[in-house]
Design a protein that fits this description.
267 residues; alpha+beta; Peroxisomal Thiolase, Chain A, domain 1; 4-stranded mixed beta sheet; 8 helices; globular; disordered N terminus
């Protein structure tokens, strides 16, 4: 199933958690020179009411104001590893979709990019971008006819496996200018009532990460939002009619990325 989360890339990195924390150091050094009070993945789980029981409720200390960006992050800032889950989707030809529902979603883009793994061995690689994500998003936007994702997308579901990962993804996916994603987070751009809601269902930190089900869980949130059936977390931006899901495997410098765009209009 192409909506499914991609298997983790074969990685030579001995400790992905260490490498995924590196972007915080580099972002601080190159752009911010300050602190971030709340990472976007923390905001997701803290502020978004999840669809099902919250097996791992957010801790009270997620708002850790004053913690330097480069500080080692506690396990609570990572996606939950041990979880169970399942997901399914009915995929059919576009012309047959209305035989099954009066409000179908249509696939607007499917993009898959696999890196060559050189980043992990390249001394010039600075960890502030995942090139595979940049190229994957470019191809998806070209297929879907998207020129300004921040204004054209109703929502995005991204692979927030680590808090620093999501900060990098905001820029690689074209939601923020280089060096500005951390500021956008603090300004509420990606909140449920922000300019571009990201992970309104709480993301991996809220749901856990049952690997094979994560991608379809994202699609399901897009399905609910674009059909106006998301209940308490229904977004005001749903009228835009386009939603993006993004997943990532591997580690910084050697990634596999998948981007899907779905929409309410056929053609």
């Amino acid at each position: 199933m192409f909506f499914n989360y991609l298997p983790m890339a074969m990685s030579t990195v001995p400790d992905p958690e260490f490498y995924f924390n590196n972007p915080l150091h580099r972002i601080e050094a190159l752009y911010a020179g300050t602190i971030v009070e709340r990472g976007p993945a923390e905001v997701d789980a803290d502020d978004a009411p999840v669809a099902g029981p919250d097996i791992h409720p957010p801790a009270d200390d997620y708002r850790r104001a004053g913690v330097p960006m480069g500080s080692p992050a506690p396990q609570d800032e990572y996606a939950r590893r041990t979880t169970d889950g399942a997901a399914a989707a009915i995929v059919t030809r576009a012309q047959d979709a209305r035989r099954y529902t009066g409000t179908p979603l249509y696939i607007k883009a499917l993009s898959l990019v696999t890196g060559d793994g050189s980043g992990a061995a390249d001394p010039s690689y600075d960890y502030t971008s995942f090139p595979e994500v940049v190229e994957c998003a470019r191809r998806a936007y070209e297929q879907a006819g998207i020129t300004d994702p921040r204004k054209q997308l109703a929502l995005a579901e991204v692979h927030d496996c680590f808090t620093p990962t999501e900060i990098v993804l905001m820029e690689d996916l074209g939601f923020a200018e280089r060096g500005r994603a951390w500021r956008d987070v603090l300004d509420g751009v990606y909140d449920r009532d922000g300019e571009l809601p990201v992970n309104p269902d709480g993301g991996l930190k809220s749901f856990g990460h049952p690997v094979g089900a994560s991608g379809l869980r994202m699609i399901y949130e897009c399905w609910l939002q674009l059909r106006g059936q998301a209940g308490a977390r229904q977004l005001a931006t749903a009228h835009r009619g386009l939603a993006l899901t993004q997943n990532l495997g591997g580690a910084p410098g050697e990634c596999v990325c998948f981007v899907c765009v779905v929409g309410t209009k056929h053609g």
